[in-house]
Design goal:
The complex is a heterodimer.
Chain A: H1 2-7, H2 9-12, H3 29-32, E1 37-42, E2 54-60, E3 63-70, H4 78-84, H5 91-95, H6 102-117, H7 123-151, H8 155-176, E4 185-186, E5 189-190, H9 198-220, H10 224-230, H11 238-243, H12 248-252, H13 260-263, H14 284-308, H15 326-331, H16 333-344, E6 352-359, E7 364-371, E8 379-383, H17 385-391, H18 393-396, H19 402-412, H20 416-420
Antiparallel strand pairs in A: 1-2, 2-3, 4-5, 6-7, 7-8
Chain B: H1 14-32, E1 37-41, E2 52-55, H2 60-69, E3 77-85, E4 93-101, E5 106-114, E6 119-121, H3 130-141, E7 144-146
Parallel strand pairs in B: 2-5, 6-7
Antiparallel strand pairs in B: 1-2, 3-4, 4-5
The chains are: A mainly alpha, B alpha/beta.
């Protein structure tokens, strides 16, 4: 294992290394290193693994020489189900992709089917979808940086974040009755309108959370242990990000200036002001810092949404997708037939294909749907960012210590539901 | 009302905005790779959101390389790599490459048609990240990628029989393996 120490000395003389440890690497490599090589299986059930993932690593001392990753332990055949369920029935499956930001998946799926049908939702429905997306994004980022900090021993930071996340889930619960598996959107509308005063509560929460985020920032960002554990660790540079199709906060941490909310505006993102933070080093610290800043931007968007949203309908008037009101269903024959046909056969989606993507919590969340007409998709492909991010873990962790691998894994925020689909 | 209807809250009229640029790019591609391009489908004639370029397998890698690096194209981001099964139509499969240009904010789709038993050249030389996506296509559809260094199953168990996303594969059924997959030391050499 002389390769890493000889070719890559910068890994070894980092500031966080006490100088006396460097002496090991100056010894003759032949007598020591061959014996210290071992294969370690990390996962699929392991406290450092965020979900059922597995990494098998060949270690030399504490340094990962070579590794490979494996997943698929929670594969639920969502794409196959997409071909065998009606478009309406598949809404519930979209929650179980990235379960930390289920609302974004709901919105992405609704948008992709609506695009195939040429359906537009009214303003209030769109604003609520946007607020949902941002709430979910904040919850997702709080989970990511909170767990990342816990993995490295910063427990109180995690509690601050999770307190706010709990409150965000309470707001989501008021919206749809569920905290995690929301299933809130419908094709062409929403499950139902937000309760009275919900926008005001979201705004109050956003203003409170802004202060908490500042406090979290003061608590951890300048912490010397945190800086030494994260700065320069598990670097993934801009070229690698492009090679491995990194997107979202992980790519922006390496200097890829891309955000689909700004570059391909969907919903009402054109009408709100926000910045896209971009860092340049692409290490664990930058991924953390980008997420922290993105939470602030999302809070700004939420406040703007809460001010711009007005009363109005949330459902599209399009008869193809609109679920008939219960009053009509129970009182008229036509309404009952409509209801029955909607839920038993499903609505017809015209032939065509589209790749619709939104900025998910972790990056580009795309849905590629091929329709040949009829109530079920011919092919429903989910492009989850986690798959591409997890693939980059092996090159990212070459020559990195095991403990830093845990930091790297936490920082790229792999969600097993989205990874295995 | 279908995919060609512009929806302001879902991308808007981007087909109108990008129309000229797309036709220019497609003309350039056709001039350069006349022998390798089968046909192009452009909205609004076809029900698709972005242009689709159908290419022959032998020209795929050079076209992808060209589209990734050529100024004016710069589709540097492989957004997605997947496949579609058109069973029982022939040719049976389409391998789909969804590309995105970060510089120009454009998207385009490249497709290769293959039949059962035929293989597609691997795009790993263009994007190393295509590795797992190609493994997934092999796992789910049974399409082989020529030149792929490590074409194993990825989502299913290595002992799995059949390719689940094929249209003739049943929705229900069990294959149970009492032992987990073993560590493969040869992958760590």
């Amino acid at each position: 294992m002389s390769e890493i120490s000889r070719e890559n000395p910068s890994q070894l003389d980092r500031a966080s290394w006490p100088a006396q440890y460097n002496v090991h690497f100056e010894k003759d490599p032949d007598d020591l290193w061959d014996e210290s090589r071992m294969i370690v299986n990390i996962g699929p059930s392991h406290p450092a693994m965020h979900g059922a993932l597995r990494m098998v690593a060949r270690l030399n001392g504490e340094i990962i020489e070579k590794s490979y990753c494996q997943f698929g332990y929670t594969h639920r055949a969502k794409e196959k189900l997409g071909e065998n369920r009606t478009y309406h029935q598949w809404v519930v499956y979209s929650d179980r992709l990235n379960y930390c930001s289920a609302l974004i998946n709901n919105v992405a799926y609704a948008l992709s089917v609506e695009r195939l049908m040429g359906v537009e939702t009214p303003a209030r429905g769109t604003w609520i979808r946007m607020m949902c997306s941002e709430l979910a994004r904040i919850a997702d980022h709080l989970v990511c940086i909170g767990i990342n900090a816990v993995d490295l021993g910063a427990f109180s930071f995690f509690l601050y974040g999770f307190h706010q996340r709990e409150e965000a889930y309470t707001l989501i619960e008021k919206l749809c009755g569920a905290r995690l598996t929301t299933s809130y959107t419908r094709i062409g509308g929403l499950m139902h309108d937000a309760p009275d005063g919900w926008e005001k509560e979201v705004k109050a929460w956003a203003l409170r959370t802004r202060e908490v985020i500042d406090e979290m920032d003061r608590l951890l960002t300048g912490n010397q242990i945190w800086r030494k554990r994260t700065e320069g660790v598990a670097v993934f540079n801009k070229e690698q990000c492009m090679d491995y199709s990194y997107s979202g906060p992980n790519a922006r941490a390496a200097g890829v200036d891309s955000d689909l909310r700004r570059d391909q505006p969907y919903l009402f993102y054109r009408e709100v002001e926000f910045d896209v933070p971009v860092a340049k080093n692409g290490d664990v610290f930058d991924r953390y810092a980008i997420r922290l800043e993105e939470i602030r931007q999302s809070l700004n968007i939420l406040v703007q949404c809460a001010e711009k949203i007005r009363k109005g309908p949330v459902w599209s008037e399009d008869k193809r997708v609109r679920i008939p009101d219960k009053e009509v269903v129970f009182n008229t024959m036509e309404g009952l037939i409509h209801h029955f046909k909607y839920f038993m056969t499903g609505f017809q989606v015209p032939a065509g294909e589209a790749y619709t993507c939104v900025e998910g919590g972790n990056g580009e969340l795309g849905m590629y749907i091929v329709s040949k007409g009829g109530p079920m998709a011919h092919r429903l492909r989910i492009r989850g960012p986690s798959v591409w991010h997890f693939q980059g873990l092996t090159p990212m962790c070459e020559g990195v210590m095991v403990a830093d691998m845990v930091a790297a894994l936490g920082s790229i925020n792999i969600i097993a539901g989205e990874l295995d689909r | 009302m279908d995919v060609r209807t512009p929806i302001p809250t879902n991308g808007g009229d981007w087909q109108g905005r990008f129309k000229d640029g797309w036709s220019e790019q497609l003309a350039q591609l056709k001039a350069r790779f006349a022998a390798d391009i089968v046909e192009t489908h452009v909205p609004p004639e076809y029900a698709t959101d972005v242009p689709i370029v159908f290419v022959r397998p032998q020209g795929l890698v050079s076209i992808l390389k060209f589209m990734r690096s050529e100024p004016g194209f710069e589709y540097g981001f492989l957004a997605d790599l997947t496949a579609v099964d058109h069973h029982p139509d022939e040719p049976r499969f389409e391998v789909v490459y969804n590309l995105y240009s970060l510089a120009r904010k454009w998207r385009i789709r490249v497709k290769v048609r293959v039949n059962e038993g035929e293989s597609v050249p691997s795009a790993i030389t263009v994007w190393p990240g295509a590795n797992w996506a190609e493994r997934e296509v092999w796992d789910m559809f049974g399409i082989k990628f020529a030149g792929h260094p490590d074409l194993r199953r990825i989502l299913m168990d290595e002992r799995w029989e059949g390719h689940p996303l094929r249209k003739d594969y049943p929705l229900r059924g069990y294959q149970i393996y009492p032992t987990p997959e073993q560590v493969k030391p040869e992958l760590l050499e």
